[in-house]
Amino acid sequence: MSWIESPLLTPPANWVTLIQPIANALSLTALPPVAHLVLLSLAASFAARRVSAVLSPRVFGRYYPTERRKRDDWDLHMVGWLYALVATPIAIHLLRHPSPELDLDPLYGVALPEQRLSAIAIGYFIWDALVTFRHIQTQGLGFFLHGATCLVAFTFTLRPFVLWCGPRFLIWELSTIFLNAHWLLDKLHLTGSPLQMLNGLFLVSTYICARLVFGTYTSWQFWKLMVPGAGDANTLLAEKVRDAGWVRWLYLVLNLLANGLNFYWFRLMILALKKRFVPSPTTSASKLAQRKPVPVDGHLGEAQERRVKGE
């Protein structure tokens, strides 16, 4: 049993009653039992950024940047790292022990553990979309699109709609753990070190397995569900899929966008790792030139001549 299933996470009954009209107005009927977790996750993300700003200078000393823009980037990475460390174990647990309600109804099924995981993700991605939009010049459009896409996708799981997808797509964060470790090793001036090389192996392995292989397989399952074949066109499930209307097509577009970003980032990641661990031809030529004796006034010096002769 994971802590995500703990009864301690159950909100007071009057809180659920208070949230219910808002949830109904937003067509998020699975939100009330977990709305408090959205707020807690959002507050925890803002708090974690403040904690990073206070603790990082003490823990990492001179490595913590003094420039405001770089400090912000550092703290954003720390919050993302913390979220990945929290969300990934829950996603793994729910992949190993999925709620049977979601197998019975893959479209509109409701199960509290998966609802709670989606709520935690929504809180974090609200924060992520806000800060990446505010710092879009340094973070890049891709990171903002990732945050906004995930926010929309996880929010709509609480309609409810394809709630089973939550753990399957959050498993992507497994690679984020090693991605942020790779980033930190860069900041600690350990670029190209054996430790970073080892972490790079884990990073590439988890990225390929979690995002490219398992992510593509999950997307294939998702597309099979959302776009029934000719032989399934008249089934009850196909009718329920068609009843989903525009939400169905929104999810298909978001899924394409998210997978496209995964393959785009993988290319950038491989190029970055190659730059660190595979010397370029110009670098090799430069090192070779440094080893060659350089004539002075057209003649080799005494020490250089001995080097050429192997003495």
Automatic annotation (TrEMBL):
Q: Where are the transmembrane segments?
A: 76-95, 115-133, 140-163, 169-185, 197-217, 246-266
Q: Does the keyword Transmembrane helix apply?
A: yes
Q: Could you tell me which residue ranges the TLC domain spans?
A: 69-278
The record's subcellular location field reads: Membrane
Keywords recorded for this protein, A-Z: Membrane, Transmembrane, Transmembrane helix
Membrane-topology descriptor: Multi-pass membrane protein
The annotated region (Disordered) lies at: 284-311
Instruction: Provide the protein name.
Output: TLC domain-domain containing protein
Organism per entry:
Rhodotorula toruloides
The root-end lineage is: Eukaryota, Fungi, Dikarya, Basidiomycota, Pucciniomycotina
